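EI: anyone free to look at a 498-residue chain?
SC: sure, send it
EI:
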Amino acid sequence: MTSTLLAVPLAQVETPLLAVALGQGSALPPSLAELERSAGGVLGRAITSGDFKGKRDEAVLLYPSGGKAQRILLVGLGKSAEVTRSSIRRAAGVAAKRARSLGATQFAFAIAPEARNGVAPTDLGQVIVEGAGQGAWAFTELKAAPEDPKPEVEAVAVVCDAKEATQVAAGQKIGEGVAAGHQLARYLQMLPGNVCTPSYLADRAKQLAAAFGFGLTVLDRAAMQKEAMGALLAVAQGTQQEPRFIVLEYRGGGGDTAPVALVGKGVTFDSGGISIKPAQNMEDMKFDMSGAAAVLGTFEVLGRLKPRLNVTGVIPSTENLPSGTAVKPGDVVKSHFGKTIEIINTDAEGRLILCDALSYVRKFKPAAVLDAATLTGAVVVALGHVAIGVMGNDEVLINEVRDAGERAGERCWPLPLWDDYRELLKSDIADVKNSGGRGAGTIAGGWFLREFVNGFPWAHLDIAGTAYTDGEPPHQTKGPTAIGVRLFTEFLLKRAEA
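SC: here you go
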């Protein structure tokens, strides 16, 4: 989906669908008076009748009797005093999703100035395009065409004041890059496990490297054995699909500047291994590569925006299946870091592949490392499907990640890695065990990873509760959320400014 900028009054916007975001209130904002006159008074009637109150996610479609817009969609932002970047992004998503349902191939989006609550023009351009891309996306590749197919939403026009056009355009460019990365991540997440294999992820990384000039290293099973990645190989020994260890390098900072490393869990299907999962909803375990998708999506953004910093992306990827060769509960394996691990639960496999990645990344001498993983079901119990669980070894970095999450609309909540929790991972026969039982499951997973972090600030993002949705939110399609792409991007862009 492309975006354009319209620095004209709303009444002059010629479009099949004009979406206007309003805050909660009982009166038409003065800034919409000219649009109201040209449209024949439909906006005011919708508000005074109570058909539209401006609540969050509320949307009312109007058919004006005059003017240049064929249809007007009022979209609620909630209380104007509480409007943020995330509110506007979400409203743009609601509008784009509605545009798709109406069969509109393009639409225009504006926000009433009275409802902006101080959101800067640059931010405005960025989040409108991001939200529009999120709301318009749908995965239709594997379905037969319906009798009444809905066309794709091809373009969004951001309507703004002429005085702010330059700033809004700057944000619009960022939004286009993020939307493209978001789209790639969701596409990869949605693919079934028989298509999106570790080799497929490596091929997509190769395509990104070719398109944008990234450095690329891909290790196969033999190369991983030479690297002594015993934990990753233990997970991979039960499947016929070849594992891959993928390293992308973006060198926008030049010289020997220490990179930020992004690590993404890439389990392309997780049955649980010998500790097999229940059959119900196991199909959702294709989403266990969502961390990897976030890293690849972020590299799409980096290639388009070219910020001035160095970034290394690391993706350990495999399936986790039961077979006669699969790793068993009670087995002991040796990690890349050199520590031995007692396998208590083969379904705690994400931490096994990530620990080798966190050990490997030391060779890059990173300035900071962020990993994203659908690591534990326990984080859903703790935080539901609203927040990412974040842990780490550096409070400054954790706060930096949380700030990026707020800007991205991908909020994080910290969990402690106190020394007391290390007791959960004590093994009688190895240096550490991979599961500490039911209590504090998310923290135990984080503590396990911390065992393999040495020499760099590190933050772990458990995205198991936020990587995909079972329901149909008003601002996006059911399924993958591309969580992490926007957070990583906000984090990196802020670092590039420093």
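EI: The domain at 182-497 is CATH 3.40.630.10 (Aminopeptidase).
SC: 👍
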